[in-house]
Amino acid sequence: MSYEIEHNKTKITLPSFTTLPVGLVRKARNLSPDDQMWQMLESILDEKTLDVIDTMSLSEFTEAMEGWTQGAPVGESLKSSNS
After folding, report:
1. Contact yes or no for 29/75 (Cβ under 8 A)
2. Cα 12 to Cα 25: distance, rounded to the nearest angstrom
3. Long-range CB contacts (< 8 A, 24+ apart) of 77-80?
4. What is the total count of domains within the chain?
5. Is the pLDDT at 7 greater than 50, yes or no?
């Protein structure tokens, strides 16, 4: 399953947050939450897609990331974040 963001008539498809490789999460584990998110996005998206994300407002980006992660911080499973 994937997560779709639409911005300025462009669709961005992100893989389901729960299917990201553990190695990606492991490599980001000691970074700040902001750096964790960017490292993950930069690892899975190409430059053209990142350019679209760069045009989003902070509120649009925050809403999209909360939707994608379902509120789970990096390194924490969705199950544990909802308990």
Report:
1. yes
2. 21
3. 77/18, 78/17, 78/18
4. 1
5. yes
Instruction: Answer yes or no: is 82 within a domain.
Output: no
- Decide if pLDDT at 79 tops 60: no
Within 1-83, strands assigned E span 2-7, 10-15
Question: What is the reported pLDDT for 39?
Answer: 94
User: Which residues span the domain enclosing 35?
Assistant: 2-71
Residues 5-33 have a mean pLDDT of 92
- 20 to each of 2, 9, 55, how far by Cα in Å? 11, 26, 25
User: Which tokens is 71 given?
Assistant: 């509120």
Answer whether residue 51 is part of any domain: yes
pLDDT, mean over the chain: 87
Question: Distance between CA 16 and CA 30 in Å, rounded?
Answer: 22
